[in-house]
Design a protein that fits this description.
Shape: globular
Strand content: 15-25%
Radius of gyration: 23 Å
Number of helices: 12
Largest sheet: 7 strands, mixed
Order of helices and strands: HEHEHEHEEHEHEHEHEHEHHHEEEEE
Low-confidence stretches: 5-20
Length: 376
């Protein structure tokens, strides 16, 4: 009888050990996070700033002992800003690198390619660097946005233009899912303002015809043109417009809120309006600004809006890990993220819930000054 009882206890202990075995990507001393992003290619300059901000915070957390004794290991693969490669990288990160979660992808069509991987393997993605509406509604169980929607940026921008008497507004957009998303927001904004677009001009993502875009813009004679595209293309449109002598006011979205974008504009930077989805990094009026500036000096990085986006994203990633506790599982982690309700991260409020994975609604407009700095 004693032998049998002892055997049963041993079997139960074995099953207990198996049940307590760590989740994929989790060990007693580390948690492995995966990232696919354009380290090279069109948006590499902005990506560097974005990742500099995120890595500055992750290094700080690791230097302080990690989260519940676990250091955060970030495995980053270069997708060259190619959507197909982003999808392939996400699959490799989950299957080959055995990551616990994915973090901070870049680009709308790129992130769309990742979604099937999340669904198949039940892996969360935290802080994709895109404001695409498709990532917000309907709510995707595995996507936790930090930045607000592009459509929100456009709606608020159009409302502000209308308030100061600007009513001839044109949209120039890349012909992909990013551009189509922005177009939806633009139509909504113009309808709400009871305005008709001065023009809606789209161009091919791979082979943009800048001459045709500028011809159409000049013919429409808008007061303001909202340019929706990646930074190099937006800079090329603005450059071609200025070469023709046009002084049309140009606005672009927060995906272009990097110092790399400002440098690409050169002499054409002054006066360009850029919407922002975080507080500024170059002032000390917020806790976030103080933290990032201190770490920027320590690590020799640029304290830019793009770096601030990465910094905030990393804080959300870590806050979820803290709330999930020592017994870390993907399901527990997602529940922990959903427990974040209107939490102040030092100057920006972020919150989730089972039916809301939007994160933040923060939007403000800036204008690039003569010195190349974003002015509020």
């Amino acid at each position: 009888m004693y032998t049998n009882a002892k055997s049963v206890l041993m079997v139960l202990a074995l099953f207990g050990c198996l049940a307590a075995r760590a989740e994929t990507g989790v060990s007693p001393s580390a948690v492995r996070i995966g990232q696919t992003i354009g380290l090279t290619g069109q948006v590499s300059g902005a990506v560097k700033e974005l990742n500099d901000g995120a890595n500055a915070y992750l290094r700080k957390v690791n230097a302080e002992g990690g989260v519940h004794g676990r250091k955060i290991e970030l495995v980053t693969l270069d997708d060259r800003f190619d959507p197909a490669q982003a999808g392939a990288n996400a699959l490799a990160l989950v299957k080959d690198h055995q990551v616990f979660a994915l973090f901070q992808s870049r680009g709308t069509p790129h992130t769309e390619k990742i979604l099937p991987v999340l669904q198949e393997f039940r892996v969360p993605l935290i802080a994709p660097s895109t404001g695409a509406a498709v990532l917000h509604a309907p709510v995707n169980r595995y996507v936790f946005n930090v930045r607000t929607r592009y459509q929100t940026e456009i709606v608020k921008a159009v409302a502000q233009f209308r308030l100061i008497g600007i009513d001839r507004i044109a949209l120039v957009h890349v012909d992909d899912s990013f551009g189509q998303d922005a177009l939806g927001g633009f139509r909504t904004a113009m309808d709400e303002a009871k305005l008709k677009p001065a023009a809606v001009i789209r161009f091919n993502r791979e082979k943009p015809d800048y001459v045709a875009v500028v011809d159409a813009l000049i013919a429409a004679a808008p007061h303001t043109a909202i340019v929706v595209s990646s930074a190099p293309t937006a800079a090329a449109v603005i450059g071609a417009l200025r070469e023709r002598g046009s002084r049309i006011q140009v606005m672009t979205l927060s995906n272009n809120s990097s110092q790399a974008f400002v440098r690409s504009l050169g002499a054409n930077a002054q006066g360009v309006i850029v919407t922002q989805i975080t507080p500024p990094a170059n002032v000390l009026t917020t806790q976030l600004g103080q933290e990032l500036q201190a770490l920027a000096k320590q690590h020799g990085i640029v304290a830019s809006y793009a770096a601030m986006e990465g910094y905030v994203a990393a804080k959300v990633l870590v806050e979820g890990l803290r709330r999930a506790g020592r017994n870390l599982t993907r399901e527990g982690y997602m529940q922990a993220l959903e427990s974040i309700r209107n939490h102040d991260f030092g100057g920006i409020a972020i919150g989730y819930g089972p039916t809301d994975h939007t994160g933040s609604e923060f939007v403000e407009a800036t204008i690039i000054g003569k010195d190349g700095a974003f002015r509020r």
